[in-house]
Write a structure and sequence with these properties.
- The complex is a heterodimer of chains A (413) and B (126).
- With 413 residues, chain A is α/β, with parallel strands linked by helices.
- Helices cover 38% and strands 17% of the residues of chain A.
- Chain A contains 13 helices and 17 strands.
- In chain A, helix 5 runs parallel beside helix 6 and helix 10 runs parallel beside helix 13.
- In chain A, 51% of the residues are buried.
- Chain B has one domain: Sufe protein. Chain: A (Alpha-Beta Complex), CATH 3.90.1010.
- In chain B, 37% of the residues lie in helices and 20% in strands.
- The longest helix of chain B is centred in the last third of the chain and has 16 residues.
- Classes of the chains: A alpha/beta (413), B alpha+beta (126).
- Chains A and B meet through helix 11 of A and helix 2 of B.
């Protein structure tokens, strides 16, 4: 069965200069946005302009240039906060989502989790939302538990209720959208149930913020972490949103300059939010760049981006099913998944799939996707993964399917 | 014919020689490539200071599995003290294909577990 290729719902490919590249004489097809997104000219120019015209350290210079840089950086923070329905004071810049989760594990976890307590995460978490909790439990004597993932790649709210009812869970950690299965988890429902049971919730939004409307004022999670580079922004900047009372009560994580109110020989007092959690010189250019990336996403509109990615995912699910011996992981309903399709082909290891796709200038990821426990749950050593963003089109999926057929031919299948 | 996935490589991938386990063995080692999850173990039976029998087992890409299979045919009969001397170039020459930097560890995993089994050294072959 085939679906006629149509014009993409959104065609912004001209805004992404890297897409003009050819590799081995073939037009680049980038299908690894779940790893990192490509960057629009508007973002690149914002960073370039900052270094050319407004570079100075922020928060301390009295001269006009330093004030300009500060205004650009803090203006970006304000727009980033509004973009996801949060407030300025509770929008904390980190190095990446991993650091944001570590901040919570060390600062909140260290003060609130002890022997006999439980931390509950899921089998579909990225290593960044597993390892910090393993270490927290080792440090504190708490127990780490996992919610199971069904055959169709989904969580069970009944299982969540049963574990919460035992009364020992202090924190629930869950990804908003799975980077492997694409599953969109019911995080508002999970956060509500956790809160009713006296637990706080941390949501890993790294895959969600780039591709759908996220409104933290509706979501009700206590902590929400995400990263800039998957959302068309630069690397080196992540974001932690937190409930104000929790952040105010938490001790600092990293310490040094900028996060203090005053320092004496005997001790120090802490700066106000959000600066209390931002030690040292901030990622100024990265913040300004992420602000520009968010403006770009906002201009297109997250609802249109979601519709575009749902269309591509639906098309990809139809087309890859034409490849003999190919099996797809995760929910089959494109409305219930993000723009990522993980798959395996009988008789060809995912690495070899990715290598043979690369010959056709089609970039797909192969491996465990930093989710080894999930691979074990699915009983596969690895998968190949194609993931989409607003700059992809149906013809990119066609190129993938051609490359997969070619891979089977090379392997004599 | 594909320059990497030559008939010889695909033949060894699909029909690996000396593949499986040995219930009674003198040496064993197991390791993986953390970047991609390829994993490989080896069992060795030693007689009179030589490799008498050898089996690799595990799962991974065509390059890692074919390299183990091709190497296994050369390893049987070698003296134990020869094993740590085997270099990365020895194995890559044996494969007879150009290995890109990103696939180098796939190719060398079999040599790494063999070195571990014979010396306890868990480092990657140079």
């Amino acid at each position: 069965m085939t679906i006629a290729a149509t014009e993409p719902l959104v065609d912004v490919r001209a805004d992404f200069p890297i897409l003009e590249r050819e590799i081995g004489g073939k037009r680049l097809v980038y299908l690894d946005s779940a790893s990192t997104s490509q960057k629009p000219t508007q973002m690149i120019e914002a960073v370039d302009s900052h270094f050319r015209r407004t570079n100075a350290n922020i928060h301390r210079g009295v001269y006009a240039l330093a004030q300009e840089a500060t205004d650009l950086f803090e203006g970006a923070r304000q727009r980033i906060a509004s973009f996801v329905g949060d407030s300025y004071q509770t929008t904390i810049f980190t190095k990446n989502a991993t650091e944001a989760i570590n901040l919570v594990a060390y600062s909140w976890g260290g003060a609130n989790v002890g022997p006999g307590d439980e931390v509950l995460i899921t089998q579909m978490e990225h290593h960044s939302n597993i390892v910090p909790w393993q270490l927290l439990c080792q440090r504190t004597g708490a127990t780490l538990r996992y919610l199971s993932v069904s055959e169709t790649g989904e969580l069970s709210l009944a299982e969540l209720d049963a574990v919460l009812a035992e009364g020992r869970v202090k924190l629930v950690g869950v990804t908003h959208v799975s980077n492997v299965l694409g599953t969109i988890n019911p995080v508002a429902e999970i956060a509500a149930r956790a809160r009713a049971a006296g637990a706080v919730t941390l949501v890993d939004g790294s895959q969600a913020v780039p591709q759908m409307t996220v409104d933290l004022s509706e979501l009700g999670a206590d902590f929400y972490a995400w990263t800039g580079h998957k959302a068309l922004g630069p690397t080196g900047i992540g974001i932690l949103h937190g409930r104000r009372e929790l952040l105010e009560a938490m001790p600092p994580f990293l310490s040094g300059g900028d996060m203090i109110a005053s320092v004496s020989f005997e001790g120090s007092t802490w700066n106000d939010l959000p600066f209390k959690f931002e030690a040292g010189t901030s990622p100024v250019a990265e913040g300004i760049g992420l602000g520009a990336a968010i403006d770009y996403l906002d201009t297109i509109g997250m609802d249109r981006i979601r519709a575009h990615e749902t269309d591509l995912t639906a098309y990809a699910l139809e087309r890859v099913a034409e490849v003999d011996g190919l099996r797809v992981f995760g929910p089959l309903d494109p409305e219930r998944r993000g723009g990522v399709v993980s798959f395996a082909i009988d008789g060809i290891h995912p690495h070899d799939v990715a290598e043979l796709c690369d010959r056709e200038a089609v970039c797909v990821r192969a491996g465990h996707h930093c989710a080894q426990p999930l691979m074990r749950r699915m009983d596969v050593p690895a998968t190949a993964r194609a993931s989409f963003h607003v700059y992809n089109a149906r013809e990119d999926v066609d190129r993938l399917v051609d490359a997969l057929r070619g891979a089977r031919e090379v392997f004599g299948l | 014919m594909d320059e990497l996935y030559r008939d010889n490589i695909l033949d060894h991938y699909k029909n690996p020689r000396n593949f499986g386990t040995l219930e009674a063995h003198d040496l064993d080692w197991h390791d993986h490539n953390p970047l991609c999850g390829d994993e490989l173990g080896v069992h060795v039976v030693v007689e009179e200071g030589k490799v008498a029998e050898l089996r690799f087992h595990g799962q991974g890409c065509a390059i890692s599995q074919a390299a183990a299979s091709i190497a296994s045919e050369e390893l049987i009969g070698k003296r134990l003290e020869e094993l740590p001397e085997l270099s990365a170039d020895w194995l890559i020459d044996l494969l007879g294909i150009d290995i890109s930097p990103t696939r180098r560890k796939c190719a060398l995993l079999s040599l790494k577990v063999l070195r571990g089994a014979s010396t306890g050294d868990a480092s990657w072959p140079e």
